[in-house]
Amino acid sequence: MDQFVLWGIIAFAVIVLGRRLYVYFHNNRQSHHSLRVRIAGKHKRQYRPRRSNEQTGAVPKKCDYYVSFSPLDGGTEQAFRVSEHLFEQMHEGNTGVLVIQGSRFIAFESDDVILDND
Predict the structure, then answer these.
(1) Distance CA 64, CA 83 (A)
(2) 89 Cβ neighbours under 8 A, 6+ residues apart
(3) What transmembrane ranges does the database entry give (predicted)?
């Protein structure tokens, strides 16, 4: 029974790793694609990172930041994980050009950029 569980865990790990590698290499083979979009929403996901038994203090929460984009000419809304810096700069309802590579977020160029002429 113990060997069955061990092989099950190994098979699961191989499947998860294989899927991640497939997505990574699939995205790398894709060309950059631009879409006119509107920022449909923003949200954070907080979590507590795993800690070893040696740590005794309170573990601070970590955040992942997500922004949802809706294509202006129809299509499926997509959400991408972004950095905290980009998350704070983006505002719901703004429009612009979303640059993606496969399912990977590359950039968002907002139409609402204010140029400073000083």
Answers:
(1) 8
(2) 110
(3) 6-25
In tens, the pLDDT along 22-37 reads 988 888 888 898 999 9
Is 53 a domain residue? yes
Distance CA 59, CA 52 (A): 11
pLDDT value at residue 103: 86
**Residue 42's CB: how many other CB atoms inside 10 A?**
16
Whether 79 contacts 68, CB under 8 Å = yes
Domain count, the chain: 1
Q: What is the DSSP string of 36-67?
A: EEEEEEEEEEEEPPP--TT--SPPPPEEEEEE
Give the pTM: 0.70
Structure tokens at 6: 């061990």
* Residue 37 φ/ψ, nearest 5 degrees: -135, 170
Q: What is the CATH number of the domain that holds 76?
A: 2.40.50.660
